[in-house]
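Hi support team,

I submitted a single chain yesterday and got back a structure, but I'm not sure I'm reading the token output correctly. Could someone confirm the output below corresponds to the sequence I sent? I've pasted both exactly as they appear in my results page.

Thanks,
R.
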Amino acid sequence: MIHLKSKEELKIMAEGGRILNQVMDKLLDALDEGIEMKQLDSLAESEIKKRGAQPSFKMVPGYHWSICACVNDIVVHGIPTSYKAKIDDLIGIDMGVFYKGFHTDSSWSVRVGGSSTELAKKIDNFLLVGRNALDKAIDTAFIGNHIHDISRVIETTVKNAGFSVVKSLIGHGVGKNLHEEPEIPGFISKPRLKTPRIENGLTIAIEVIYNLGSPEVVYGSDGWTISTKDGKLSGLFETTVAATDHGVILLSKKYGPSGDN
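Hi R., thanks for writing in. Yes, this is the structure output for that exact sequence:
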């Protein structure tokens, strides 16, 4: 069942989103060559709690960390370890914040370092496609459209660039629970009118989950980590938005060169 949020609930989610934004900014500032993924996790937890909130991911049964740290070929659910960031690594930080009874959820992928190698250019182009797909998806998430419209624009943008959408992982509704209805696939899964209509008060975490190579993934022995089957790079961009009478509102902002707001 889809839970449409009231104006009061949206205000609370916006407050939680501001906390998420502030903490994510600190993590992205700290993400540099030599930092360990578990250091980012510790920083996230302390900064979230300092602001009177809780890490959403620690509320997931069996998961004991505040963030997911996805390095290079890790698609989602990367456990923060002692791995140290290297120049030209592609690292995605995924994080949720629970504040006054509501969750917000966001992730961003970046390349470590300031090199200008051919590899760096390849990664930057790959990441630009993901940012553009998220931008277009957000612009599509207005009242009267259907979830299909979001799915279509993500799939089209990614495929037209020569990359692949991961079909075993999807976006989702978000609010009192970290994962709510409706499902938000990054690909066309049903005819348009058979997908939910976007209504006033709908809050969703739009996710662009895509790979440089094959869309196929493999599941790690730790029970969480999901990686690309071919060992090639993966990217993840996510933000929480609300559909309102005033348009699409970002509850967690976008990050990176094309996402400052």
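A quick pointer for reading it: Helices lie at 7-30, 37-50, 118-140, 147-160. Let us know if anything else looks off.

Best,
Support desk
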